[in-house]
Design brief:
The chain is of the alpha/beta class. It has 9 helices and 19 strands.
């Protein structure tokens, strides 16, 4: 049996196809699952990615040699059939399906199974081997519905606005910020964003994703605007001098890590909203089960727990040691 994906110092490598998936060292040919910094890096000779993510990928990486595929479109490279399928993680996120020698492997990158109006929904692919993340691979992680969560965010924003203070919500600039924009009630007040967020908003709008109007914080001269505003920024900015311009603020952090007791306190936030672009514990196992795979390889997150649990379910489970993990980026202020 040919191993369609193996671990190398540069990243996950497909030997028969002679290419890498989300490599963390510069390589000649890279298939990219999505544009988050731990999966899409500069320095590769040739990039292959989903067409839906072209805008955000170019915005983040600049001038690159990029080939795109529509979801479900198939190409052959050195005898390996490659196709990309929605992962439901962020705009343009994809699972990489590889077919060669009668076997099918799927490398999922990062994914979520919950609905999200800002990206194509997760589509399970039947396969022999499934390579999965496990960022929130513990039974404690179980997400509530978006309707319930955004009602809470709106109520927090509304209460702050009535007190005449800004609502500063820290979140990851790519994916999380746009999901928040699509979910909140923009009628409550103006929406102000950090300079790291707006270019991604523009890429989403260019891709046809409907987002409410946003204003750059640095372009606002009337400080009265801030008194009813929702302000979206990266966690690093929330703890910097950049945030002083808003005066009296209520602060919050939107992340799956807010499920953990103490995470909000360590970050110094008033509120924590449990919102993640990754699958929770039930979602991970629902996704794995839908593939029909008898062998599962875990790449990052709660690896030992996930491998042990999958083995107890009768699956052949193992792990790749990778350099993935945008939890580092999400908790930079914690």
């Amino acid at each position: 049996m040919t191993e369609l994906v193996v671990q190398r110092p540069e990243g996950l490598y497909c030997p028969p196809g002679d290419f890498y998936i989300d490599p963390w060292r510069p390589v000649d040919r890279a298939v990219i699952t999505h544009a988050h910094a731990d999966h899409a890096r500069t320095g590769h000779g040739h990039y292959l990615a989903a067409a839906a993510g072209e805008g955000v990928l170019r915005q983040r990486l600049g001038e690159i040699t990029l080939q795109t595929l529509a979801y479900g479109e198939r190409i052959a490279h050195h005898g390996v059939e490659i196709s990309l399928h929605p992962a439901g993680h962020v705009l343009g996120s994809a699972q990489v399906r590889l077919s060669h020698g009668g076997e099918v492997w799927v490398a999922s990158g990062d994914y979520k199974v919950a609905p999200d109006p800002t990206c194509a929904p997760f589509e399970p692919q039947r396969c022999d081997v499934f390579i999965t993340e496990s960022t929130f691979g513990l039974p404690i992680y179980r997400w509530r519905s978006d309707a319930e969560l955004f009602a809470e965010i709106d109520a927090w924003w509304q209460a702050n606005a009535e007190l005449g203070r800004a609502s500063l919500l820290a979140c990851y600039s790519f994916g999380k910020a746009q999901r928040i924009l699509a979910g909140v009630n923009a009628a409550i007040g103006p929406i102000v964003v950090h300079g790291a967020v707006e270019p991604l908003n523009q890429a989403y709008r260019a891709a046809g994703v409907a987002l409410p109007a946003t204003q750059l914080a640095t372009e606002i001269t009337d400080r009265a605007v801030f008194k009813r505003a929702l302000v979206l920024c990266p966690p690093s900015a929330a703890a910097s001098t950049w945030a002083r311009r808003f005066g009296d603020v209520g602060t919050a952090f939107a992340s799956g890590w807010m499920q953990l007791r103490g995470a909000r306190r360590r970050g110094g936030y008033d509120r924590g909203f449990v919102l993640s672009d990754h699958a929770d514990w039930p979602g991970l196992h629902r996704a794995i089960g839908a593939t029909g795979a008898q062998r599962v390889i875990v790449t990052h997150g709660s690896i030992p727990v996930m491998v042990r649990y999958l083995g107890e379910q009768g699956l052949q489970a193992g792990a790749f040691q990778t350099e993935y993990g945008d939890e580092v980026l999400e908790t930079e202020a914690a």
